Amino acid sequence: MKRFLFKVCMAGEGGVGKTSLIIRFCQNRFTEEYKPTLGADFAVKKVKIGDMEVTLQIWDLSGQERFEIMRKYYFKGASAGVLVFDVTRPETFLLINRWIEAFYKHSGGGFLVLVGNKIDLEDKRLVPPQAGEMITKWLNIPYFETSAKTGENVFDVFTFVAEKLLEKTQ
Ligand code: G3D
Ligand code: MG
């Protein structure tokens, strides 16, 4: 079996659900009782694709979203970035350009996917799907909508990332 290891960085404003998405993907759970933390800088999850094993080393910002200076080191060597916003907080969508810029500048050739999270909060939703779809059209960044709470689409995002990373090695 062929094995691969990639660095994947979560990106996006505080409170959008980055840590919750990692916990859903890696441990298949969601907790509302206390603020989710990974307890480490990154989580590791193996994904099998055909006869290949892809290990995603998923880096989290753990409360340091505001410190722009650290983005340089954080994104360095990232093969992919998962840029998250909260569909109930338009300001988190309006700020994605800053993350896109920083990621492309510092990762050194990684690709991005955009994620609109918290779609379970239907009544509070303020960013329509078309907003994310526009980003795909303009910037060629694939767009997913997820709920870390229900788990909807979360595995699809990371599986897509793993498949795309593998494609690039072939
Ligand atoms: P961050 O890592 O981007 O800062 P967190 O975001 O994962 O810490 O999540 C921030 C808050 O949003 C948490 O609530 C978390 O439970 C909630 N959350 C994350 N994803 C979802 C989701 O898909 N649906 C809903 N309804 N809530 C979500 P608290 O209350 O701890 O601030
Ligand atoms: Mg967090």
Q: What is the tally of helical segments?
A: 6
Which CATH architecture would you pick?
A: 3-Layer(aba) Sandwich
Number of domains: 1
- The SS-based structural class is alpha/beta
Major β-sheet strand ordering: 2-3-1-4-5-6
The overall strand count is 6
- Reading off the top of the CATH hierarchy, the class is best stated as Alpha Beta
Task: Characterise this structure.
- This protein has one domain: P-loop containing nucleotide triphosphate hydrolases (Rossmann fold, 3-Layer(aba) Sandwich), CATH 3.40.50.300.
- The chain is globular.
- With 170 residues, it is an alpha/beta fold.
- Strand 2 and strand 3 form a beta hairpin.
- Strands 2-3-1-4-5-6 form a six-stranded mixed beta sheet, with helices on both faces.
- The site of guanosine-3'-monophosphate-5'-diphosphate has 17 residues, from helix 1.
- Magnesium ion (MG) binds next to helix 1.
Give a concise summary.
The chain is of the alpha/beta class and 170 residues long. The chain contains six helices and six strands. Magnesium ion binds next to helix 1.
Blueprint (SSEs and pairs):
Blueprint: E1 2-11, H1 18-27, E2 42-49, E3 52-59, H2 71-75, E4 80-86, H3 90-94, H4 96-107, E5 111-117, H5 129-139, E6 143-145, H6 154-169
Parallel strand pairs: 1-3, 1-4, 4-5, 5-6
Antiparallel strand pairs: 2-3
Guanosine-3'-monophosphate-5'-diphosphate is lined by residues 14-20, 32, 35-36, 117-118, 120-121, 147-149.
